[in-house]
Class I SAM-dependent methyltransferase (Streptomyces celluloflavus), 229 residues
Amino acid sequence: MTEHTTTDKTLADAGTGPLSTEEFWDARYRAAERIFSGRPNDALVRETAPLRPGTALELGCGEGGDAIWLAGQGWTVTATDVSSVALGRAAGQARAAGVDDRIDWQRHDLAESFPAGTYDLVSAHFLYPPEPSARERILRRAARSVAPGGVLLIVSHAGPPPWEQDPDPDFVFPAPEQLHAALDLPPEQWDTLAAETYERPATAPDGRPATRLDSTLKLRRHPDRARAL
């Protein structure tokens, strides 16, 4: 998911009120003509540069910036989001970019349903379901969707945004090593390609420049010893 301009606390609160998760995000997308920049996440561009294009699964695609970029690089993409509004907007952007034939848009609340099949790349950027405990469960399911020899790419926030006035003290930002441990993947089946925390430029909701702390966990499933998890 391309980064939202809302706070992480708001992301965590989605779906906990009278609206369902889908209704919450549909309403948020309808509130503006565009939520995201339309550009791919820098970490996606950086981490997929050495990969040969194949099949990709994006979890939480938003308005489609990452999925459209991947399709433009030659990937065949399955892109998911809980919001039908976001998916419709993303499909329109893909048509305009001439890559709509390379992307399968699917609506999923990933805590309840998940795309079928296995993929050469499974990408989750800033994926925060309403129920925090569901994140590890979804990411473990994502790992099972990585084909032998494929890559799991998880990009997360490593701390609250600097513009957040009252960050939720209970919201947990695990380090990439902690997330890796929580996934509980058989070490003989996976190689760690990246596990790092870093600063990157960001833009506050009021338009001011800022800096965010993010993390990347990039794992490759062994091509020769992969078996059912």
Remarks:
- The helical segments are 8-13, 21-30, 42-48, 65-72, 84-97, 133-144, 176-183.
- The two ends are 25 Å apart (CA to CA).
- The mean pLDDT is 89.
- The longest strand covers residues 190-203.
